[in-house]
Each structure stands twice: as C-alpha cells, then as structure tokens.
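My current task is to audit a protein record that another person submitted. Thanks in advance; the entry in question is below:
***
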Amino acid sequence: MTLKNIFLFLCVSFLTYPIYGQTNCNCPQALKQLISKIETEYPGFPEKVKQHNDLYQAKKSILNKKSLNAKNEACVALLQEYLDFFQDEHIVLRSLTVAQKKVSETTASPAEPVEEVMAKAINPEVFYIKIGSFAYENIALVKDLIAKHTEQIEHSKGLIIDIRNNGGGTDDVYQPILPYVLTNPIRIMSVEFFATHTLVNGLRDYALKNIKQGLDSIAEAKKIEDDLKEYKDNIGKFVLYGDKKVLIDTIALHKKSPTQVIILANRNVASSGENFLFSCRQSKKVKIMGTPSMGALDYGSIREFKFGCDNYQLFLPTYRSARLPQYPIDNIGVQPDIYLDESIPDWVDYAVHYIQE
C-alpha cells in the first residue's frame, strides 16, 4: 500500500480510536496540555500567531486564570475559547463526559432526514442538481445520478449545481460532474504535511492493519517504513506531498455539455465544497452565485491527536495548502461572481432567469 492511498483515505474520514478513561484532566491541566499540543503539532500555529503574538499571549494568560475555577461545561467553553483564537473549522474538540451527559438527557425525536443528492429538469433548457454534502457515502449516489440523467444534462442549455450548506467531505464525490462543467485543464495546488509523531504513527497503524498476513507481510511492513522515512526524518517540519506545488489536471471533457453553468453557494460551504468552487471557477462557462463561502480550506486532512486528557477528544488538521501564505482562504472564503443578497428570496429562480436571458 502506498502513502498516496493512505493520504486519500485520510482526506475523507476521521481515523478515530477507542478512548479509555485513564487520565481525566481538571481544567487547568487540560488547558495546559491542549496549549502544548496546539503549539507543537497544529500546522497553522506559526502563521496564525506570527502577527498577533501579543494578543495570543494575553489570551493564554486570561484563560489560565479562568481555568482555576472552571468545571464541566464551563471548562469545555473555556477550552473552545482558546481554540477559537485560530479560527480554523478543522480544529474540533469534544468533551466525552459532557457529551455523554447531554445524550442521556435528550428525549427529542430525531429530525426528518434531508435529501442530500437530487436532480430534476426545471424546464427543457435548464437542469438542476443538488448536492448537500460531499460525504463519502454520496460518491455512488452522484455517479448514479449522472448516469441516469446524462442525456438531459448534455442537451440542457444551462446547468445549476446547488451546493448550499455543503460542509465538505471528499473531492471524489464531484469528479463525475467536472467533465460537464470545465472548459480547460485546471491548476490544483498541492499540500504540505506537518510531520509529527502522531501523523507518522497513525499512517503506520492504518497501513499495517491493511497488510495481508503471509510470506510478504514482513517485506510490506518494511516498505511502509521506507515510505514514512521522509516524515520521520523531518519531525516538526513541513513535507511537500509529491514533487510539485502546482499540478495540472487534464480532465476528459464531454463533447456535449451545457453552455452555461451556475453554482449556488453560501456561507456554509466549506472544505471540499470550497475545493469544488476553486476547480469550477477556472472554467470559462461557470458563474458562482450566492455569498462568500465559509473559508475552511487552508488546513485539512484531520485526525485525532492525543493530548493526555482522556475525557476529551481533539482533532487537528495535518497539512497546509501550498497556497500559503500568499493566498489564504480561511475566514475569507471563495468569493462569488455574482453576490445574491437577502432581497433575492429564491436563488434557483434567479439562476434560471439568468441562464434564459
């Protein structure tokens, strides 16, 4: 198994492991150890603190004092306040004790499921596709949708792709759509992984679990260690994935496709949802309509990082985009070509009229 396959898996899922309650930290201890983990293993720490170090140090001092008397929910809020300084949606902290308590107290019935993937012909000229999530389980759904409606898509004048509230997932979900959307090869920025023992051990554990027992297992294990050597030799440093910062992706385009493509996006579009916008906006026939996206794309491929407190789970990104620091997206978002304000109640209707004008 190559590192490429391992990284592809990491990009679409959390690699979580059972938590055994061995060390439950009080609030001052949890904050101290959380700070240490962020400062040494979060790939965005140097860049995000560089120009705001005085503010960061003051924030730490205030929170350390507050932590002395904080318990339970108050401590969770305090730890989250510290993490909020970095304004990174890919940093996730979970309190296992508070979460369990809330689950046991919840008696409300589950909400009605929302259809995340659907398509329809709005009229003979305009076809509409909605993808509310790029979650891994939607790969097959989108493939089937495209196969089922190929003729309608090819013969439509305009295609509307609605990804509002799409918080991301895996880029594999939207690949079947690109041949109908793009007009030319696209530039894709690579990523730089921040080499840590957590990353190396996690990659090794995952790879070893997928080795088939047999005569070749020892050789495969050695191959895994060889693949990890660059990361093991550069702990605490960034390692470029691949040998180029910029990749040119030449996608085979369909001979028949819509002449206009509208993508609807709002503030809740994030992560791989924003990757989709980045790719599509390079097409000469695409217009992005809506509002700026969330801005959660600079750091990614999250996994669990232990920080010595078994009453909490911490998930951190493991890479930064090679766009940085010249072209940050976090908390800025991908900007629309046409901004739709609150005076436009029906975005789909607006897009239809835009195509037919």
